[in-house]
């Protein structure tokens, strides 16, 4: 076969504007629209043709265009301004710089640990590694399927804004997630586009000696290699693994082909690449993270690789290695939907990991126990992460609670409220999702510093100062833009599908900007109930065709290629769009992606969200909508109960329990129609001189209460303060002096597990009787026998809460203290006392003993507890 070499001919870049290349290779362009304007100024048509990909743009742009730009004073001025902002962004002191400066002043510097020679100038070793199977950063590269990926992308962008020492790890997919085309029958077709990595804003990652980094992992009967790519996102880096290299067999080269494609063999191999390969890539790059954040279970194999490093590399016994691992690992779970949790059969685990059992110095049974799912008998990635990570969290207040009850079975003896899974409510990267037009409004009315305030807990009162007419005018402009985009897309779709000229021409009259517009776009998983409005088409037709107060609806979203019911729903909605009653008034836009999402979330009036509670862990699209003055209409699920205050959007339906899904759907359907007919439509159309005053007031309320809190700036700060800082400190403490603390904690836990059954509460006495007055003290005295367990290894406490029909709610604890010189001490009997004072109401209280160590990550690091037998 002939062998060819390739050569790429690129346009000469005029010296005056040569830093365009730097801009093209930093995802900074994804949130600063002035960079986009710069590329558009060179050649707008080309910018659209390359789908907003600046690297592709620079490969394709003509020398003439570049020369013309370089000789235009106007362009050069624009260029200089953009470069200034970029340089300022990259160099100005960040939140983290300020934080570090404050710590060093406080003299809180961590002392230098032996072996920690990589400490930076402040003496603080801190690096967060963030592993995720998806990163949704920009429309030009589809490495995301939905909310999880978008969240990861926005997380990285906020980490950059804050100046955190942060590195992302993911896989580079040759085809990414699929492109959705809707065919003439109104059915979804999945197409996989080939991504040329040389045309993406990434470069091969180099190690300290300047060599390209290639790592390998063991798969059954072979080694698979992966090349590592480097992407800059503002100040931080993401590294992507790519198995499509000639050292691999043809089949293995396909491993990083599709995101969430292929069978479970592909899936496990991908996850091994991500988790195990990802750790190896960081090591090859000379990076030593002190915090490991696992974004959803796909990346949890990193735990096994780190255990292997500790056992093989540091000669630690397995049990000690596990304690050290727990010190600095955080797991974020993202869904209560069972299909969202990967489970591999034990047979598969044997094939892929039997070499690991020995390396970790444990038996096959012990290995399986790391992640055994009693219900399915399989190896569950969520359990692998939950059981090994020191910290775990859900992604909204409600989802935290749902996760605690989902995993209560792992902590049977503990009240569900105390299951050690916390929550950090999701956010969005504000600048990525904010329409430039609205951004200008904020600049004008909120003052210079508003960007720094997108992590606040207080409302943005100045939003009230924005003149209603100005806000509404911009909203209508954005709506018109959205309508034009929708028409353009349907036009393209019909041309591609060889539809008749009439059908193509008809699109020009689709959607009208002055009509109340509801948007619904998300993954078409059935629990999201895209079809809820269509349960009664007559009633919907009446609303849509009302001569005075019409309604129009825009749908978009992909269904996973294996999700048949989801695809049926897409077909159903596309059929509705062809119904004469709905033509041009209910539309479906194919290939929902970041670009379409931006237009919709900035251009509709109402953003509809109808998942079946409590299936939506958080949802983030509604936050993007609110930021741009779009009102949310959502069931009380995910993030919405935290945001809704009665006047910043609409809550529809309820979170009650229903006998079955159909009952719930019917209930929510009626509630939704009532809300539309009685509130949303009348208020929208109550306009004076084209201005819906009350509506605009609601828009302001929505912006001012939702934008400041639901940002990834606030979210990443919460991760940092609640988890990253603690994990990093624990990492240093546990690793110091030859992993001394890790070993001690392992021994302590072993001792407590073996002896806990000897701990008893032999009696409890209380001061009061069954009735008390508010503010009166209730004193509790308990006699405790600890056996061989020492007083310093336990915590004795009163546990109390509201007594409700469903048990004790709002559980609180109050410490109890050992009485000095009690007589019984010789016989191992200790008396503890404590008191509580209670407001009016009915309460339940009891006493318990739980294990304690200053090195526990949380109360129930060791899920042992001894409750007072009966009171
Ligand atoms: C924001 C976003 C999502 C996630 O939003 P949900 O509310 O979870 O549906 C999904 N896809 C795209 C393209 C988005 O922009």
UniProtKB/TrEMBL annotation:
<comment type="similarity">
    <text>Belongs to the glycogen phosphorylase family.</text>
</comment>
<dbReference type="InterPro" id="IPR000811">
    <property type="entry name" value="Glyco_trans_35"/>
</dbReference>
<keyword id="KW-0119">Carbohydrate metabolism</keyword>
<dbReference type="GO" id="GO:0005975">
    <property type="term" value="P:carbohydrate metabolic process"/>
</dbReference>
<keyword id="KW-0021">Allosteric enzyme</keyword>
<keyword id="KW-0663">Pyridoxal phosphate</keyword>
<dbReference type="Pfam" id="PF11897">
    <property type="entry name" value="DUF3417"/>
</dbReference>
<dbReference type="Pfam" id="PF00343">
    <property type="entry name" value="Phosphorylase"/>
</dbReference>
<comment type="function">
    <text>Phosphorylase is an important allosteric enzyme in carbohydrate metabolism. Enzymes from different sources differ in their regulatory mechanisms and in their natural substrates. However, all known phosphorylases share catalytic and structural properties.</text>
</comment>
<keyword id="KW-0808">Transferase</keyword>
<keyword id="KW-0328">Glycosyltransferase</keyword>
<dbReference type="InterPro" id="IPR035090">
    <property type="entry name" value="Pyridoxal_P_attach_site"/>
</dbReference>
<dbReference type="InterPro" id="IPR011834">
    <property type="entry name" value="Agluc_phsphrylas"/>
</dbReference>
<dbReference type="GO" id="GO:0008184">
    <property type="term" value="F:glycogen phosphorylase activity"/>
</dbReference>
<dbReference type="InterPro" id="IPR024517">
    <property type="entry name" value="Glycogen_phosphorylase_DUF3417"/>
</dbReference>
<feature type="domain" description="DUF3417">
    <location>
        <begin position="13"/>
        <end position="140"/>
    </location>
</feature>
<dbReference type="GO" id="GO:0030170">
    <property type="term" value="F:pyridoxal phosphate binding"/>
</dbReference>
<feature type="modified residue" description="N6-(pyridoxal phosphate)lysine">
    <location>
        <position position="624"/>
    </location>
</feature>
<protein>
    <recommendedName>
        <fullName>glycogen phosphorylase</fullName>
        <ecNumber>2.4.1.1</ecNumber>
    </recommendedName>
</protein>
<dbReference type="InterPro" id="IPR052182">
    <property type="entry name" value="Glycogen/Maltodextrin_Phosph"/>
</dbReference>
